[in-house]
Amino acid sequence: MLLTVTTTHRPATDLGYLLVKHPDRIHSFDVPTGTAFVMYPEATDERCTAALLLDVDPQRLRGRRDAFELSQFVNDRPYAASSLLASALAKVFRSALRGASKDRPELVGVALPLEIRVPVLRGSAELATRLFEPLGWSVAATPIPIEPELGGESRYVDLTLTGSRTLSAALNHLYVLLPVLDDAKHYWVAPDEIDKLLRSGAGWLAGHPEKVLIARRYLAHKRALATTALQQLEGEEAEEPPAEEEAELPVVRKQSLAEQRRDAVLAALTEAGATRVLDLGCGGGALLAALLKDRRYTEIVGTDVSARALEIAARKLRLDRLPERQRDRLKLWQSALTYRDDRLQGFDAAVLMEVIEHVDPPRLPALEATVFGHAHPASVVVTTPNVEYNVNYEGLTGMRHSDHRFEWTRAEFAAWATRVASEYGYTVDLRGVGDADEATGSPTQLALFTTTPEVTA
């Protein structure tokens, strides 16, 4: 991933002094997720450009315990600007972020003519404009088209910012807003992230019209941390943020959507009379844990394309500590849902809980043929977000998760489910999950597919 900073200040090569990186050299730095390079494609008195190039090592990233879960072996993390680039920026340009320069201290507080470009950034052009324009930047955010034969625009933008700012202010804007635009962080977000946000947001965040969205996204949607940060921005006395995520939950609380979704799936499985169940795309094993607690399920199989996800599930379920009888009920298999797997045949039910939206639309027919055709369990339970409901989430732009390939309206989901049921010999019952809005429906939609009973003479 790449970021460039250009100035036409005279002499423009003073940029090297402010960044503490000599223009005549290529500088390299080891960072937790790969190697960062700083180089100068151009360095004259009239114009100077510094480029920060982050070469992400996918193997090193995949091996980090605090890294976000990679659901596919090929993804955009090494290429699209994100918190990975923000972290590299903080390490490589530490003095410039603080506004310190031993060689050019008189320039630290001077607004320089700057042009900043991030050629591949995950996020929307509309949100980039909302975030950077209030800070005085002229924003050019151009959506990057996907392959011409597919048509339409991708989820990425080519971002260019122009304006007169101190270099320190510009870098702090990027440090905070790159992960906000991507809406994902590659490391565990703890209470000390509040200090990072307030320090980098000093002088501009408190007056930003999108400060609530910025705090929530920067702090990974942890409500207690975001509330504490916003209180401190307003100068209010804030309670000490909890040390653990669980401390955010009050003793008596409303059931989360994830729990409501899980319970709806369990109710559908009970209705179907299933005892041998496949959890396809099981991820970290949240549904598997609930299935294990119910003795009616005599055989439970969790599958995922990611070996890492299966390792996490095994650890969370404590498979090595389960009694033998419990352990014999559960199997974890690595399997891709777009390829036939004979092991998946003969089960009472299969669950695709928040899975199909992670599949590229051109690959959906392969998933349908694998699950509904080749495996053909007696029942299939599918849940997926209802995109119409997204307007009820304050600050949400785009889709609910950075890895979603699509999100369907209720009509689109109904049309898909009806077609699949007809094609593969099922009937389907559509339901909503979660608190319904009168206009937009429920946040999650569920389909229970059951095989059409055979008529016998």
Automatic annotation (TrEMBL):
Q: Which enzyme type, at the first EC level?
A: transferase
What InterPro entries is this protein classified in?
3'-RNA_MeTfrase_Hen1_bac (IPR024026), Hen1 (IPR026610), Hen1_N (IPR024740), Hen1_N_sf (IPR038546), Methyltransf_12 (IPR013217), SAM-dependent_MTases_sf (IPR029063)
Q: Which cofactor does it need?
A: Mg(2+)
- State the SUPFAM superfamilies in the record: S-adenosyl-L-methionine-dependent methyltransferases
UniProt catalytic activity: small RNA 3'-end nucleotide + S-adenosyl-L-methionine = small RNA 3'-end 2'-O-methylnucleotide + S-adenosyl-L-homocysteine + H(+)
Keywords associated with the record: Magnesium, Metal-binding, Methyltransferase, RNA-binding, RNA-mediated gene silencing, S-adenosyl-L-methionine, Transferase
Q: Can you name this protein?
A: Small RNA 2'-O-methyltransferase
Pfam name, any one = Methyltransf_12
This protein's superkingdom? Bacteria
What is the organism of origin for this protein? Paractinoplanes bogorensis
Domain Methyltransferase type spans what residues?
278-368
Residue stretches making up the Hen1 N-terminal domain:
1-233
Protein family per UniProt: Belongs to the methyltransferase superfamily. HEN1 family.
Annotated signal sequence is none
Q: What is its EC number?
A: 2.1.1.386
